[in-house]
Amino acid sequence: MLRVALTGGVATGKTYVRTRIAASGVPTIDADAVVHALFAAGTETSRDIVSRFGPAVAAPDGTIDRQALGALVFEDESERRALEAIVHPRVYERLAAWMAFQAGRDVGWVVAEIPLLFETSREGDFDRVIVAACSEAEQVRRLTGRLGIAESTARVRVAAQWPIGEKARRASDVIDTSGSLEETDRQVDALCRRIDAAARTRGARADQPDCRPL
Predict the structure, then answer these.
(1) Whole-model pTM above 0.85?
(2) Residue 170 domain-assigned?
(3) To the nearest whole percent, how much of the chain has pLDDT over 90?
(4) CA separation (Å) from 26 to 4, 73, 92, 115, 195?
(5) What is the Cα–Cα distance from 98 to 100, expressed in whole angstroms?
(6) Would 208 be classed as within a structural domain?
(7) Domain that holds residue 129
(8) In Å, how far are 113, 116, 211 from 168, measured between CA atoms?
(9) CA-CA distance, 189 to 183, in Å (whole number)?
(10) CA distance 20 to 26
(11) Quick one: 142 exposed, middle or buried, by C-beta within 10 A (0-12, 13-18, 19+)?
(12) Could you report the per-residue pLDDT of 75-109, keeping only the tens digit for each?
């Protein structure tokens, strides 16, 4: 099974790309959904976060208030790193368990959407890395339009991650999401065909008997 990571920057279209891949029948998982589960009321993670950052980051129902937490960590690197030390190891544990389960189902390839893949130095866990990319100006435009936040706040969120050009340079494959949705779809569909072929080739090699002399 090929393990494929999908990453990019904030508002570069990662989730759209993953959804398109999933529509073709490829199993996918979203690290952000894993974080959402970890932030539920009563989890060890939510208790640790409240202990570290205070009761103001907890919503009335006991879940973690991501907006309140984000306001604390996005503009303070030391606070952001403290949060990451709590959350990231648990996220990767769950991703590893999911991939192990998928491997047991004998699927050809899987995709994990991980926004901070390079920032956490975990790209080596995967056979391929797809980066969804657009310009920084487009990221800011999408953030201000989608979330209604100030341009200065949007730029801080973009700057909190690696430059998208550096991520694209390190990628196995790049999907340019700057154009229309149809253009993005064509790129994703073509990439799926290439990875399907690579997965079949790997599977055929794995099925070959070992004929080396004793």
Answers:
(1) yes
(2) yes
(3) 84
(4) 11, 34, 20, 19, 11
(5) 5
(6) no
(7) 1-27+111-200
(8) 15, 13, 40
(9) 10
(10) 9
(11) middle
(12) 788 999 999 999 999 999 999 999 999 999 989 99
